[in-house]
Amino acid sequence: MRLAAVTGLVLIGACASETRVVHERLDEASGITVRAGGEPMVFARTETQYSRSGRDYLYFGPVETNRQGVREYYLWVGVATTLDRGYLAPPGEQPEKVFVDVAGEPMELVLKPWREREPGLHDPRVYGTPVRLGAELAARITLDQLRRLASEPLQSLRVVDHDGHERAYYRWHEGSDWPSFLAAVARGE
């Protein structure tokens, strides 16, 4: 009896101390399960000619959707700014592609609005961010590409808009634990 009580307390303590870095939810209206990391990586760029403290941000996180065993993978990209766009700084165009160097090789990912990638989701939210998002985009990606991105300490990335204008962003905040996300995906397979 005493051994069972001690074992139960140890199990409860282990569960309480485990931090959850992967979020999973069922979109009840569509029946789609959405899995995402705890928080996205954050990339930023400054435009010192407009502000020393205002920045443009790109939030970068992995997503898995599951429709009764049919899984698809995405790189979710949130676009935000703390610059006064339109008054001081000209409005930035929405990126259409993101380029990431992985092990010395460029990876080109085509971005589309998240709602277009997953139109069946009743509740499209994936990640929360401290800065209000101007756009939520996503690139369809393979599980192998996600693994390659997780293995690389990403320090910068480039985006290109539909007019061909290129902007570089640099790592601002570490963000989610991608290996934990991939481990959760592997357990679900």
Task: Characterise this structure.
This protein is α+β, with helices and mostly antiparallel strands. The chain starts with a helix and ends with a helix. The radius of gyration is 19 Å and the shape is globular. It has 4 helices and 11 strands, in the order αββββββββαβαββα.
User: What fraction strand?
Assistant: 35-45%
Main pleated sheet: 11 strands, antiparallel
Separation, N- and C-terminal Cα atoms: 38 Å
Low-pLDDT parts are: 2-19
Whole-number mean pLDDT = 83
Task: Enumerate how many helices there are, as a single number.
Answer: 4
Structural class: alpha+beta
Overall spatial form: globular
User: Helical content, roughly?
Assistant: 10-25%
Q: How would you summarize this macromolecular structure in one to three sentences?
A:
This protein has 189 residues and is an alpha+beta fold. 21% of the residues lie in helices and 43% in strands.
Which characteristics define this entry?
11-stranded antiparallel β-sheet; 189 residues; single chain
Task: Give the secondary structure arrangement, pairings included.
Elements: H1 2-17, E1 22-27, E2 32-37, E3 41-46, E4 55-67, E5 70-81, E6 95-102, E7 105-110, E8 112-113, H2 114-117, E9 133-141, H3 143-151, E10 156-161, E11 166-173, H4 178-188
